[in-house]
Specification:
- It comes from marine sediment metagenome.
- GO terms for molecular function: DNA binding.
- This protein has about 40 residues and is mainly α.
- It has one domain.
């Protein structure tokens, strides 16, 4: 989905734009948490 807007992703997956936004925000937070945990180990 690289380079796609939230609207395009929502249309492709037959979801509401807000659902796509929420899912991507959750993923970003989880990734940030994991990366911060990894950095503290180095």
């Amino acid at each position: 989905m690289k380079g796609k807007t939230y609207i395009e992703i929502a249309h492709t997956l037959n979801l509401k734009v807000k659902s796509v936004d929420n899912a991507l925000q959750r993923i970003k937070r989880k990734l940030e948490t994991h990366l911060n945990g990894y950095k503290s180990l180095t």
